[in-house]
Request: fold
Amino acid sequence: MACPFHLSAELNPALLSLDWLLGNWESDEPGEGSFPNINPFRYTETLHFTHVGQPIINFMFNAFHAESKKPLHRECGFIRVQPGTNKVAFIIAQNSGLVEIEEGELAGQQLNLHTHALARISFAKEPHVQQISRVFQLRPDGKLEQTVSMATDNQPLMQHLHIVYHRSS
Reply:
């Protein structure tokens, strides 16, 4: 069940620099995922960025296997901007049992984020994620691109996911 939100709420001025992110996005073509300890895969994904007038963006990401359509990864959380700066924080809970805070900077319509802190459930699957780096970029053609890099206990930081979205509403 999705959280209720009110489209009529006025955007908090603290979020004006991120207004390009708001709305619903769907992958154009399947994205690609790979990492040394898993088979390469293709996935589709929807992104939902909303607000309720607070200085916070709410988000929910839902990924599905491109061929079987089975649910894969889910993330939900909040985006905050440090007032008067270009510093941004993502507070994220994942269905894998990982909870993280990513922080970074906004440069125009590109958001670069890196792990600031993470925690996981006690029975999380190994190898454990140790670091995540994420880049969102609004391209000149109006499409949103996301690249996610990951490091684990036994692998250095490397690209894990890449996908392009179009705005669906």
Q: What stands out?
A: The first strand starts at residue 23 and ends at 27. Residues 1-6 have pLDDT under 50 and may be disordered. The radius of gyration is 16 Å. Residues 11 and 129 are 34 Å apart (CA to CA).
